[in-house]
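Records of this kind hold a single protein each, on a pair of labelled lines. Below, a sample record shows both lines together.
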Amino acid sequence: MTAKDNVRVVTGLALAMVMNLAGCRDASPPPAGETMAPREPSSRPLILCLGTSLTAGLGLDPEQAYPALLQARVDEAGLPPEVAFLPTLESGYRSDVRGLGGSGLWQLCASTARRYGLVVTPRRDDRLNPHLATKAAIRYLQDLYERYGDWPLALAAYNAGEGRVDRALRLSPGATFWDLAERGRLPPVTCAYVPKLLGLARVAHPDDCDDDPIDDDAPESF
């Protein structure tokens, strides 16, 4: 199976996972061999559908639609709208999640969190504060884009770390994220990371996929 095939399969799985997570029952993943866009998208934007079912886990009033507020923060910062879906992949929109390498809504590692002004000690961990963590994550993503000049590579670095992406680019100078994925230069989980994010965006914004800074150089079959 080629990297392009993996992109199609992973995206279909991502759509199914997110629709199930959000409680959206009016869309389903496409059969094998068909386009990844849902045949009958939800009548509500996915970001609001997610907000209704997931804000309770954050201790917020469901009417606040927390993910929609997060989308507003991303828009204000001038980042692509897909960035607002990163917490879906990282933590399922739960601010109390502690992983092997990161914690909080955005699963920031301790060293990165401290680099962007967050306090991480045994007594206090600002990564668990969704507002502080969001500010830090947005600044980190802005710096990654400034470093690589390319959103897929910036997102790959967010997932795997700058060192992994830098090493991959040294082996394949001038390569795009999709080139690195095709050549196996990045970890499998990172190769799946950007396609998953694009899959979420195609559900949330099915009419905006032709003018997107993240998938400009994606394979035509994606």
